[in-house]
Amino acid sequence: MRPYLLIFLALASCARKPVEQDAVTLFIVPTRAAASDPRPDQVNEPVPEPAPDPPAEPAGPVVPVENQEKNVPPDAASAEEGARLLFEAIKKDDPALAEEFFFPAAAFDLVKNMDDASNYHRKLETYYEEDVHAEHGRYFGVKAMEFDSFELGGCTWKEPLTQGNKLPYWSCRNSRIIVRTGTKKFDYRIRALINWGSKWYVIHLGPIRS
């Protein structure tokens, strides 16, 4: 090759500028699928459905079936449990010990057919307390007496709208709390028990006041 041709090629090579890389064409944008793919430690767990709301509590006491339709009187077991409490209240001259054996106010409001049943219920509670104090003084040596047994009195079914009532119930008269001291036995009378559901409650311990 001729010398002048080699010189020309060398000069042409030095004058040539390097081709610049377009930065934009080199930037690789991830595909949409790749960007949304979770890492193995970020796999979404299924979201559990929220638990249903618990049922709402009834606004007041529900009328039990025993106070809707006539059937056999409730078992006397609850009356005997209450009678034991009542005797302890009489023995210790403390009506508070037998509060739970008195007919509950909320049920009384449903049973009674009157404008102000709660006021009458408070009167009956006062009479109940007075009667406990009176029974405490009935027998000398009451503090030494022990519970012996209980006898449920004669029971009758009271229909609605009788004796000023809206709801029916069983009423038992002259039930007996039998107590003893040594070999001697005595009794305390409960003038009237009435039922609410399967349980018995005192409504009149002593004489019935109007």
Structure description:
The protein is α+β, with helices and mostly antiparallel strands. The protein has a domain at 65-200. The chain contains 6 helices and 5 strands; from the N terminus they run ααααααβββββ. Strands 1, 2, 3, 4 and 5 form a 5-stranded antiparallel beta sheet that branches. Strand 4 and strand 5 form a beta hairpin. Helix 5 (105-111) packs across helix 6 (117-136). Mean pLDDT is 84; it is low at 5-9 and 19-29.
**What is the helix fraction of residues, given as a range?**
25-40%
Beta strand count: 5
Fraction in beta strands: 15-25%
Radius of gyration: 45 Å
SSE order, one letter for each helix or strand = HHHHHHEEEEE
- Spans of at least 5 consecutive residues whose pLDDT stays below 50 are 5-9, 19-29
Spatial shape: globular
Distance between the termini: 145 Å
Task: Name the average pLDDT.
Answer: 84
**Structural class computed from helices and strand pairing:** alpha+beta
Number of helices: 6
Instruction: Give the biggest sheet.
Output: 5 strands, antiparallel
How is this structure best summarized?
This protein is α+β, with helices and mostly antiparallel strands and 210 residues long. The chain has six helices and five strands.
Show the helix and strand layout.
Blueprint: H1 3-15, H2 23-26, H3 32-36, H4 77-92, H5 105-111, H6 117-136, E1 146-151, E2 154-158, E3 169-181, E4 184-196, E5 199-204
Antiparallel strand pairs: 1-3, 2-3, 3-4, 4-5
Helix pairs in contact: 4-6, 5-6
